[in-house]
């Protein structure tokens, strides 16, 4: 089953996705979302900003997923929230809207789920 269709529900029966918060990454690198931490049902996450956050956090938390870390392009601006610091120094457990990378994908917006 592909995970490319917006809103497509994905049920995992093999290896469970690596989940942190509402985001997850499956065994082949697809970015997923589940609003319920106890659920085995995930939805493909298509919003560029949310995908950026999940991939940045996956790469930071799991060294074996470092290749998923987003790569900054010249047109990608500094994060308006942390102003390029990559998070809030006083609260390292908080995840900034940039995924703690200090930049956001150009043209991306945070949309409601």
Annotation keywords:
single chain, about 110 residues, alpha+beta, 2 domains, five-stranded antiparallel sheet, 5 strands, disordered N terminus
Briefly summarize what is shown.
With 113 residues, this protein is α+β, with helices and mostly antiparallel strands.
What does this entry look like structurally?
Helix content is 12%, strand content 14%. With 113 residues, it is of the alpha+beta class. The protein has 2 domains: 9-68, no CATH class; 71-107, no CATH class. A 5-stranded antiparallel β-sheet has the order 1-5-4-3-2, with helices on one face. The protein is globular, with a radius of gyration of 14 Å. The chain starts with 8 loop residues before the first strand and ends in a 52-residue tail after the last helix.
Largest sheet, in brief, is: 5 strands, antiparallel
Briefly note the structural class of the backbone: alpha+beta
- Terminal Cα separation, in Å? 23 Å
Give, in spatial order, the strands making up the sheet with the most strands: 1-5-4-3-2
Helix content: 10-25%
Averaging pLDDT over every residue, what do you get? 81
Cα shape: globular
Number of helices: 1
Total count of strands: 5
């Amino acid at each position: 089953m592909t995970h490319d269709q917006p809103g497509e529900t994905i049920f995992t029966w093999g290896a469970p996705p690596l989940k942190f918060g509402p985001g997850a990454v499956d065994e082949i690198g697809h970015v997923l979302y589940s609003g319920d931490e106890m659920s085995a049902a995930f939805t493909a996450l298509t919003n560029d900003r949310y995908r950026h956050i999940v991939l940045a956090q996956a790469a930071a938390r799991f060294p074996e997923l470092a290749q998923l870390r987003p790569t900054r392009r010249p047109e990608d601006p500094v994060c308006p929230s942390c102003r390029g610091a990559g998070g809030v120094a006083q609260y390292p457990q908080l995840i900034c809207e940039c995924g703690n990378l200090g930049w956001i994908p150009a043209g991306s917006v945070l949309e409601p789920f």
